[in-house]
Design a protein that fits this description.
27% helix; Quinone Oxidoreductase, Chain A, domain 1; Rossmann fold; seven-stranded mixed β-sheet; alpha/beta; 11 helices; 2 domains; 18 strands
Length: 371
């Protein structure tokens, strides 16, 4: 087993720390990747803070780009030396949901990876002194990682390899919310609640999809300014202004679609309250375990509102489309990535994320020399 530098979460509520771990060779339908970059995502922070249960010790990091170094048996769509990006959802391709095209709710991904930190043979590819180490998705906060091949996608030369890491979660999740779940139509009005990495991606993609108004809502003026750069037509600081009243004043009614990108009880309630009759509330933010919705049931029923969950997207169809948008220059990756860190600053990056000091998406440039 080759050894690779990594950052390990020993126990929840402890900071990540640098260590060296062993990475096994890829097995059938798997790919070994030298990591170029890995995104800094709030979902990993939920795991660090024990707000989402996950086994430890673990290597986190689920937003990866890099160079293929080895492929397992049966892998033909990529080869050693290829530049790739990976989707955080790693569909098995064989469960009852995947067979219906519902890769974003792949049963094996949830049961093996999200519950046990394993790949689909019931084992992890990571160890340290003979002890198994759990993998959160592909465990990208290391200099090498093993990824199921259905989550690995070749990149055209026109896409910057380091920046491409954020295609696999932030933009992948935004694309799923805007296109796959909301099925946003040109001319519709949109509110995006919480302008973090995913929320800003939704703003950007909603504008690209032809939304007539894209209203970004947050409590941070700097994030709202960035949302304007990425396509928001209007911004509301909800710490200073009632967003429902503001939207009603702007439009004369609520919005067609409200995207919630934080995962909290008040923001989910706002997503429902800000809708026009017949509107869709798309929930894309991950909440701490045990948090439940608090909405006006009668309003939902009488005004024919829809509340829709959105977790990533079907990888086989969404990732090629996201990569295509990036290759055509329709996604401003350099604006979405607001903070860049060296590999040795991985723990610091999550501290800054916890302190709400990262405006858009943070990026760990793990091996910039390979780009």
């Amino acid at each position: 087993m080759p050894e690779t530098p990594s950052f390990v979460l020993e126990k929840a509520n402890e900071p990540l720390h640098a260590d060296t771990i062993s990475v096994a060779a890829p097995r059938a339908e798997e790919v070994l990747i030298e990591v170029a970059a890995c995104g800094v995502c709030h979902t990993d922070l939920h795991v660090i803070k024990d707000e989402v249960a996950f086994p430890t010790p673990a290597v986190l990091g689920h937003e990866v780009s890099g160079i293929v170094r080895e492929v397992g048996e049966g892998v033909t769509h990529v080869k050693p030396g290829d530049r790739v990006a990976c989707s955080f959802i790693m569909p098995c391709g064989t469960c009852r949901h995947c067979e219906k095209g519902l890769e974003d709710i792949c049963e094996n991904f949830f049961n093996f990876n999200r519950l046990a930190g394993q790949l689909y043979d019931g084992s992890t590819r990571l160890s340290r002194n003979g002890q198994d180490i759990a993998m959160y998705s592909m465990a990208g906060h290391a200099q090498h990682c093993v990824v199921p091949s259905r989550a690995v996608f070749a990149l055209p030369e026109t896409v910057n390899l380091l920046d491409a890491a954020v295609l696999g979660c932030s933009l992948f999740t935004g694309y799923g919310a805007v296109r796959a779940v909301a099925d946003l139509k040109p001319g519709e009005t949109v509110a995006v609640i919480a302008a973090g990495g995913v929320g800003l991606s939704i703003v950007h993609l909603a504008q690209a999809a032809g939304a007539e108004r894209v209203i970004a809502i947050d409590i941070d003026d700097d994030k709202l300014a960035l949302a304007r750069e990425l396509g928001a037509t209007d911004v509301i600081n909800s710490a200073e202004t009632d967003p429902v009243a503001s939207v009603t004043e702007m439009l004369g009614h609520g919005v067609d679609v409200a995207f919630e990108a934080l995962g909290s009880v008040p923001t989910v309630r706002l997503a429902v309250d800000i809708l026009d009759d017949g509107g869709r509330a798309v929930l894309a933010g991950i909440a701490p375990a045990g948090h439940t919705m608090d909405v006006d049931i009668t309003k939902v029923v009488r005004r024919k509102l829809q509340i829709l969950g959105s977790f990533g997207a079907p990888a086989s169809t969404a990732m090629p489309e996201v990569i295509k948008l990036a290759s055509l220059g329709k996604i401003a990756l350099e604006k979405l990535i607001t903070h860049r860190f060296r590999f040795e600053q991985t723990a610091e990056a999550y501290q800054l994320l916890n302190e709400r000091k990262i405006l858009g998406r943070g990026l760990i440039e793990t091996n910039p020399h390979v780009a």
